[in-house]
Specification:
The protein is mostly helical. It is 82% helix and 0% strand. It is built from 19 helices and no strands. Helix 1 runs antiparallel to helix 5 (99-115), helix 1 (2-28) runs antiparallel to helix 8 (165-188) and helix 18 runs antiparallel to helix 19 (370-392). It is globular, with a radius of gyration of 20 Å.
Length: 398
């Protein structure tokens, strides 16, 4: 039994490792796949916008279902979504050259990949309640490692063997995820005796989405601030190819830049739980906001590919701090009965940010250029940081 418990955190960390590979291929390589298929930057933006709208609609509904269900675990629901995503990726391979079909399948891929995120995050706490010793920061660092390694590999494969490698390699990754999810589903569905006893005594009925919104106003404000910050991450992730091209780089250079950014995240995420014992999650969110401002100012001022790489290093004090801190903050400020709804707020912010960045980013790049686009990113980083400071305040409860 102890050996099994020891394997569970490693299996969950492996799930994060492979999940963020799918995020990389579908999100950050969207331009690399769609532009050669005849899409313009504006059309890529429309694809991502519709994907974001679909995610915004489905994420809270799916979170409510997951909170209310006594039979479906987060791992079980994620397995279903992963299977559907494999089918849609197969569709991308089958319909290349057909712009309309590619458009539909890519929007579906974006939605399915995005709505897995709150379920995977909450899985950490489900396993923790089932008696396993979990460390979300280390697990999420493995996600950044997977993202880093896959970005470098996928950039090279795409340059050498063509854009079909993007959906093909993602299917392989999802197959591994399904195997891991099957193992984790058994563990999360079988809580320890202590957990079962506590559940029998303390079960409360989850509140509705409207009740959750009314009682967690401060968390909703924080989500608005996170939307502004994640606008910067999403925009620069979706249009990094254009940013790199602006300073004379290639698709392979873009893959390496993503790799540098993801590798920079790992130390902060590995050390997160240790830092969290000394610094509150609210303070860490404020630090992350400042990091976002610094990173995007450097990107705006970049005149060479080396400067873009330097900006990517600032993932260490922006995205890498924000992600584990917001997951922990939501966990601290929501009850077990509304846990998935709480965890859905961060992906909800990401989807809203994706909607804003996709809708405006492609248009700005096509009409105004990369510099104007990056100026907006800096402004959004400043606005988001101000909102985060206001929402967190002096560590008041939501």
């Amino acid at each position: 039994m102890n050996r099994t418990k020891d394997r569970i955190p490693a299996q969950y960390a492996s799930l994060q490792f492979f999940y963020w590979m799918t995020n990389l291929s579908i999100y950050s390589f969207s331009s690399a796949f769609l532009l050669p298929n005849g899409f313009s930057s504006s059309q890529v933006g429309i694809v991502m916008t519709l994907g974001s709208i679909g995610s915004l609609i489905l994420e809270p509904v799916l979170a409510d279902i997951a909170d209310r269900s006594r039979r479906l675990t987060p791992a079980g629901i994620t397995s279903l979504l992963a299977g559907l995503l494999i089918l849609c990726l197969g569709g991308l391979l089958a319909v290349q050259g057909n712009g309309t079909a590619l458009f539909v399948f890519y929007v579906l891929c974006y939605i399915l990949q995005t709505i897995m995120q709150p379920l995977i995050n909450e899985m950490n706490f489900v396993l923790e309640r089932a008696g396993h010793t979990m460390n979300y920061g280390v697990a999420r660092a493995m996600g950044s490692l997977g993202y880093s390694l896959f970005s470098a590999v996928l950039g090279v494969l795409t340059e050498r063997y063509g854009i079909s490698m993007i959906p093909l390699m993602t299917i392989v990754v999802l197959a591994v995820m399904l195997f891991l999810l099957a193992m984790l589903n058994r563990s999360s569905a079988a809580p320890s005796e202590n957990t079962q006893e506590a559940s029998a005594e303390e079960v409360q009925k989850p509140g509705s989405l409207a009740q959750f919104a009314r009682s967690h106003g401060r968390l909703l404000l924080l989500t608005a601030g996170g939307t502004c910050l994640l606008f910067c991450s999403n925009a620069c992730g979706s249009y990094l190819l254009q940013i790199v091209n602006h300073v004379g780089g290639t698709t392979e250079n873009m893959g390496f830049a993503l790799s540098v950014a993801a590798a920079s995240e790992i130390p902060a995420m590995v050390l997160f739980e240790r830092v969290r014992k000394r610094v509150s999650t609210g303070t860490l969110l404020k630090i992350a906001g400042i990091g976002y401002i610094v990173k995007h100012v450097i990107l705006l001022m970049a005149k060479s590919y080396a400067a873009v790489l330097f900006a990517m290093v600032f993932q260490l004090v922006s995205f890498a701090v924000y992600i584990p801190a917001i997951v922990a903050y939501m966990h601290e400020h929501t009850s077990a009965e509304d846990a998935v709804k709480g965890q859905s707020l961060m992906p909800l912010a990401s989807s809203a940010a994706g909607l804003l960045s996709s809708f405006s980013g492609g248009f700005m790049i096509d009409r105004l250029g990369v510099s104007a686009f990056l100026t907006i990113c800096v402004a959004m980083a400043v606005l988001g940081t101000l909102i985060v400071f206001a929402a967190v305040g002096k560590e008041q409860n939501a």
